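Support request, please re-run this one:
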Amino acid sequence: MMTTTAKPPFRASRYTTGAVVLHWAIALLVALQLASGFAMTDLMGRSAAQFDVYQLHKSFGITVLLLTVARIVWRLFNPPPPEPASVGRWESFLANVVQFAFYALLLLVPLAGWVVISAATVQIDTVLFFREWLPFPHLPWLSDLDAPLRSLVEEASEETHGILAYSMLALIGLHVAGALKHQFADGAFLSRMGFSARGDGPRRAYGLVPTVLVTAIVAAVLIGAGTIARHETPASAADTPEPAAAASPASPAASDAVAGASGAPASAVAWTIDPAASSLTYKVAYSGADIAGGFRRFDADIRFSPDDLAGSSIDVTIDTGSAFIDSSEVSLQNLAGPDGFANREFGTAQFTADTIRADGEAYVADGTLTIRGTALPQSLRFTVAIDGAGATAAGTMRVDRLGYDIGRKSDASGKWLGLEVTVDFALSATRRDTAGAALPDAGAASEPGEAPPWQVLAEESRLGFAFRFDGKDVTGTLGPVTAQVHFAEDNLGGSSIAATVALDGAVVTTGGVSADQIKGAQGLDAGAHPTARFQSETIEYGAEGGFVARGPLTVRGVTHEARLPFTLEPRGDGLVVARGTLSLDRRAYGFAQELGTGGPAVGSSVEIDITLVARPPAGTP
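Re-run finished. Output below.
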């Protein structure tokens, strides 16, 4: 029960400082919450900015929820100051009702929003204020509901959330009107929620420690639950297996095995795809519009000849952990998680076809598509254009996602997420071996023995890197670089590259990240692992006169198979410049999510550019 000041004139007794700070912080966030809610639903339409506003809206709501907990605890220890005598009994009663309603709505509106995002058809992670280290969990029991019931809960909670938000807006109007009435009637009434009022009321505050402690515990429990859920659901890159070696065109033995299994005669031509000039994309309808994405890493073993369709075959392996999506509604966590590709358990998809037939001017490959361990018959229609030693192919496949249990838990009815996914590919390839042996077989030596050594000039060789940090590009160099190169174009089987780079020589050129951060424990960890090393195991012909080296790459003491396409260019002074580029996933090598404690997030992909300047052996053409 509030007390009143009996002695006129009214002396504006202010609230405690803690109450004032919490009042205005919550008021500001509620205003931003209402504004962002109207903007994202009625003004922005479908755009990339809409996703950011959604995340801010959720962040404001969760913050309001936590600050309201703090405000209630603070109120238990610190009663409000006296009211002026001019406040009548009915006005005091109405003020109490409004205040109680405010507390209720400040709790119920965020809680209703929490139910909305937890029951949503397509789950989108909540990351508070765009900080990956501040995840917020979904209510776990909602994810166990079947799709129709989840849809019903989503619609009901969304409507409730909207009604409560409009109620909050009406209550704010009533609150402001009452405050202005008393300001004009009593004078200095508004300064009760200021810092300079004098007069009756509490001069000391109590309960600071319990308020902070209770609020911190609530926040820690929620964010901790979100962190645990995030690590349990999506697979990290380190958990994602590499594409099967048997599907790689780098291995002639693997190609021969596939050919033998399909009964392919010598006239079926083996092809090596050029990943840089090839693409594998998909699109699916969501909420009435198409969203698109693709895969960054895939490999193929292809034997094809229009004159020998019976001996032709296709074997494609896709690293589903390399999937990306151009959408503000569906996140990568959705794709990687148990209702998506289930990368933690599987990690690859594969299409194999030993039956290829002509269909007018196109071709159809009848085979098997395996996703999430489920293999189903699938047909691929494609066209091919062959020009000498090069070829391009393009095709389309339509996949029923429910056949592979993709999105079944989120939306089995297809109300929001389309049931059919259209997969498109465009491949560029070069002839690897032919009946007439127009080109040497990849990795096969024309003469036995090791290829001759090249003299690498360390002072002119360099290694550059680039990655995204806090929305900006960070570039720099590492070094020095030392390398041992044995190479001969007519003896690729005897050719090899072994390159070592010193990590303590890191230099950052752009992006606002220091060299110490790059070399530190959250980056390259140069103190514990001062060098990185690449050792080729095979070198084969690549696209457009280039080559591809494959072998283990070791960074931070972690080793994964890497693929390094490179070209050789004469410099005119008897030297040759070798340039190569590879992309690595920092998560696979244990790099931290951010640089510095609580720092901005680092992009998952790191691009490495290698330049070696070398003197070839005498007589090299």
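Residues 1-9, 44-48, 233-266, 433-448 have pLDDT under 50 and may be disordered. Residues 147-186 form the longest helix (40 residues).
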